[in-house]
Every structure is written in C-alpha cells, then in structure tokens.
Design goal:
single chain; 164 residues
Length: 164
C-alpha cells in the first residue's frame, strides 16, 4: 500500500482505443519501483462521446486509487491519417482535462524526449526503450501491451525530468 512518503508518478500513452498507463514509486530517484501498469480500452463500435466518457471515468478511478503526485503525458505524433489524429487529439484533451480536474500536475514529452531520457538516443527502437524500462524497474517480464510499457517509459521520463 502507498503511504504519504511515496512519490507516485503516473505516465500516460494517449490513444482512443487503447490508453496506456503506468505508475512508479519515485521516492528513491535512483531506484524507482514499479507500482502498476495497464490499459484503458474503448471499443470501436461504441459511440465516440461515450468512449471519451469511459476514458474520463476510468482515469479518474486510477487517480483516486493511486493519487499520483505528477503525470507525464506523451505529446501526439501526427501521422498521415488526419481523422485518427483528430480522434486521438480529442481523447488526449479528455486525459489532460481529467488530470487537471483532479489537480494532478502534468508534464508533456515528445516521443524523441522519451527515447532520449531512457536510452540517451532519440531515435532508439521501441524494443530498446522497453528493455530499459524492464531493467530500470527490475521487471521479470514485459508488460502485456506496448501501450502500458510506453506509459512506464513516460513515467520514468517524468521522474528524470523532476527534482525530488
């Protein structure tokens, strides 16, 4: 169980269908500890506004459960599909709003900054970033979903960018 001495950092990998989240205990900046990770999922056949409501509701529950001190959120990487980018942008807006409503300070990072923070190379392959997450958090196995692993990488990037 978390206590008041813990520094809880949340990382969020935004999406519409799958939103990755990861939480670490950063009391000891040199030895962060894994708390939890997973995904908020919405189904494509669900009405768009309801998908946004699901994201808000489930993220609010996670915030209440883990009470993060700060949350890192990945900035959007715009691809060629404008419709997808706009939907993900709206979902990201709901994520930012939910964090703000719950008074969780927000830090934003580009994919390049995240890769740089974990591997010292901004163009590192995804597997290398995941390997560093596993090593840093002493995980025995990879998170089941890439989005959850990405969220842990974002949480670690937030830790490395903070003064604790």
């Amino acid at each position: 169980m978390l206590n008041s001495k813990n520094k809880v950092i949340m990382g969020i990998d935004p999406g519409l269908a799958t939103i990755g989240y990861g939480l670490i205990n950063a009391q000891d900046k040199k030895n962060p500890q894994f708390i939890s990770c997973g995904c908020i999922e919405t189904k494509p056949d669900t009405e768009f506004k309801e998908r946004l409501n699901i994201i808000n509701k489930e993220l609010t529950q996670l915030i209440k459960k883990y009470q993060p001190d700060v949350c890192g959120v990945e900035e959007l990487f715009f691809a060629k599909n404008v419709k997808t980018a706009m939907s993900v942008g709206q979902a990201r807006g709901v994520i930012i709003m939910t964090l703000s409503q719950n008074k969780v300070p927000i830090r934003e990072f580009t994919p390049l900054q995240i890769k740089q923070a974990l591997t010292s190379y901004g163009r590192a392959p995804k597997k290398q970033v995941e390997d560093m997450v596993m090593i840093t958090l002493n995980l025995k196995q990879r998170p089941k979903k890439d989005d959850a692993a990405d969220a842990l990488a974002i949480a670690l990037t937030t830790l490395y960018s903070q003064e604790y």
